[in-house]
Specification:
With about 150 residues, this protein is an all-alpha fold. The protein has a domain of about 100 residues. It contains six helices and no strands.
Length: about 150
């Protein structure tokens, strides 16, 4: 390649790059318009499977922490979808119990995520009495003293 051909080569390459940039920018604009025209109901979120709640294996508060952590890791923050996911993962027995607890005037579907968590917590997290907790603490201390 001589000195005359080199500027021609650079000019041709620049023209090709400009053409490519124009084509890519047009495609990007079209893609953005398509994305904005799709409705939110058409938008699907793929999350990895998460196991159902089993009250025999773990406390509900621990399960809820793990579920929320899993949702955060996957950038799944839509409260309505999280409520649907919780209703799906809670299991049929607990779902039916909540529906019975709410009564016929209120459906489980109308509860938002925070209300759902509160209702499930009142159902699945037992109330701890201060008297019983003190008595259990005394038993543990008594066992430690007599054993050691």
């Amino acid at each position: 390649m001589d000195a005359k051909q080199f500027p021609l080569l650079l000019k041709t390459m620049n023209e090709q790059q400009k053409t490519l940039l124009e084509v890519f920018s047009k495609k990007l604009k079209m893609q953005r318009q398509d994305d904005s025209s799709t409705s939110k109901s058409d938008y699907h979120v793929n999350i990895t499977p998460f196991e159902e709640f089993e009250s025999r294996k773990e406390k509900f508060t621990f399960y809820l922490e793990r579920l929320e952590n899993n949702c955060l890791m996957q950038s799944f923050v839509n409260a309505e979808k999280k409520a649907q996911l919780l209703c799906k993962l809670i299991g049929s027995a607990h779902y039916i119990n909540l529906a019975v607890l709410l009564g016929p005037e209120k459906s489980v579907k109308v509860l938002n995520y925070d209300e759902l968590v509160k209702k499930f917590c009142t159902m699945l997290v037992p109330f701890k009495s201060a008297v019983i907790s003190q008595q259990n603490s005394r038993r543990i201390i008594h066992r430690l003293v007599t054993a050691g």
